Amino acid sequence: MEKRVFSYVIILIVGGVLFLLSEIFGKLDSFWGGLGLALFIFAMLRLIQIRRIKTNEEYAEKWSIASNDERNIYISKEARSKAFNFSMMIQAITLIIFTSLNMTEYIKILSYLFVGQLCIYFALYFVLRKIA
Amino acid sequence: MGLKEPLLSSRIHILRAEYKLTQKDLADKVSVSRQTIISIEKGNYTPSLLLAYKIAKTFGKPIEEVFIFED
């Protein structure tokens, strides 16, 4: 838990600094400001949640059950695997559309992404097959 | 383990009534959410072997008396 608090504090500081540099001092463009604010809010919410877990026993128990519940874990894994399937399909369709429109630069980037993801998938598949 | 696999039906609701346990009581005893117990009872979710064992142990019965495998 302490490691998590430390990492969220780092994210909070990085987010805050990005936001200040962009929105207050104008040193960075608005993209970094937006990203900084998002990181700041994310880390802040996580830290509030950790504090609640530490101080509220009832909430801590609820949180522990919800995060260790096997059905929740199953649903989360299933959603991630389906999201991967759909994103691969969307990328493949986009690749075909870009090819028909002769957009070579986009085709190159998307192809690398597509093949890279497939390589990661197969590497993980073979590693997990050995472990399981 | 998974959703919508109608291979395993359970007698959890009957046993719960017998032992006067609510879904929440059982969920707390086996450290899962109430929703998981509801899904198992409805047959929407097939529990892992470990959870099935924990549930059976809670009722003091062997697994095959709590979960019925349907061919």
UniProtKB/TrEMBL annotation, chain A:
Protein name per UniProt: DUF2178 domain-containing protein
Residues passing through the membrane, by range: 5-25, 31-48, 83-103, 109-128
Native source organism of the sequence: Lysinibacillus antri
Keywords of this entry: Membrane, Transmembrane, Transmembrane helix
Domain of life: Bacteria
